[in-house]
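Hello forum,

I keep getting stuck at the same step: I have a sequence, I want structure tokens, and every attempt I make locally crashes halfway through. Rather than fight my setup again tonight, could one of you with a working pipeline run this one for me? It's a single chain of 260 residues.
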Amino acid sequence: MEGDAAEIIENTAGKYFPSMRRAVARLFDIVFPRDCPVTGEPSDNPPWRYISAKGLAVLPRVAPPHCETCGFPFYGVLAGSQICPHCAQFSPVFSHGKTAVIAKGAARELVHTLKYRRGTWLAEDMARIIATTEFYPEFLDSAMLVPVPLHSARLRWRGHNQSLLIVRHLARILRDRHLQVADVLERTKNTLTQTLLDREERARNMQRAFALRAGVSIDVNARYVVFDDVFTTGSTLNACCSVLLDAGAKHVDVATFAHG
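Reply #2:
Ran it on my machine without issues. Output:
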């Protein structure tokens, strides 16, 4: 409950006094210190606001070598193709992908807290995890970051779009990488949850689920990177990328916080 109150006050401060938002956030961290969601221990670990050093240490980070298309790591010695078996069968429309962690253990706990438990206070730390993952900042250089949108009904129910929250923090943290948040897509179909669907069902579920926002134009010279919190089968990301390509984009990649 403390987190919800802090978020409301931070958002209010940000709306009316934008320059005060971070100061208000830091004040709440001092007055209402929060335990690490991974370890349950105090999270005195600047510049991370809520994740402790022990929590960071147990995150299943992704490091090279990994699939060039989705970012999933290859374990052991890599020989031959740089594409994982899933992507070889999947044939995505996007070119390259990057992810920061494997969606298990501590990483899954972070995703679930942000996504399903209104843990919006975690978005900044999750963005910082991305920003400190090997080769991830270079991958995002000068990108137009496109968050996967939520349908308006689901957004009202959840209260936030986790992908949009993360990319906003990411653009600020990696300001020297010249990132821009491009919230250019909308969800036109309130699809079934993907959680219990197989690969083919997920792909069908995503058909005609997204569109370009009214009045938006695509810069054919820009590199668009579609961002989602988790890469599972890639169907959602693929559907979003298809909309951008159909609208004239020439360079489309994907990025996620977690994979699996």
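The chain is about 40% helix and 15% strand. If your local run keeps crashing, start a new thread with the error log.
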